[in-house]
Amino acid sequence: MSTTKQSKKLNKSSIKGQEVQKRTIFKPLLTNPYTKKNVWPRIEPTVQVDLLQILETDTLQPLRIWNSFTPEERKLSNSTEHENIITRFNSIMEKLEEQVKSNPETSNPITALFVCRYDIPCKLTYKHLPTLCQLANVKLITLPKGSAKKLAKVTNSKHDIQFLALHRNAIPEKSFLALTIDSTVEDVKIGFLENYENQKLNMNVKYILTEMPIKKKQPKKT
């Protein structure tokens, strides 16, 4: 009898202990627009393939020609079209950050950023791009798997091209690429950024009342 009573007492104390170690919190629902930070515009696979083909056959030709020049030929060349195409990650990030800060807008900003997400093993490399692209007013476009090698081949580049930024002058108005992007690629939309300049944000966000356990710190073993 004494053993049974002692067992019940331990069970009660352990349950009570678990209850004490919980606290009430307000948790935002998953549909909360203020917690969506990494939403990429959805682009149909067929459209991704079409965009890649346009880049290969037309848009990237100035860069292909420039990369085929010898150092001596580059010194003699007056070509500047290739400067509207950026493929180095650090240079792209620097340009986009400058674009966010620029006021008024530059005359030839980056307007489209193509990313070979499926060819990049580390997601942290591109996780921040939706936020950055919305702030910089840039179209964010995913290319199909295998695009990094295809872009490198068509531009005579030594390394895979995982990121490709195009300035406005690289996408002529009314061109097939411009029309395709405008008609098939949505702007990046992140809820809390749409009103980031407004001091009084519309915080009409639904929350649920729930509980979460409080973890006690375990003493360090000496």
TrEMBL record:
GO term, biological process aspect, one: tRNA processing
InterPro entries linked to this entry: RNase_P_Pop3
One Pfam family named in its UniProt record: RNase_P_pop3
Protein name as annotated: Ribosomal protein L7Ae/L30e/S12e/Gadd45 domain-containing protein
Domain of life: Eukaryota
Native source species: Pichia inconspicua
Gene Ontology terms for molecular function: ribonuclease MRP activity; ribonuclease P activity
Gene Ontology cellular-component annotations: cytosol; nucleolar ribonuclease P complex; ribonuclease MRP complex
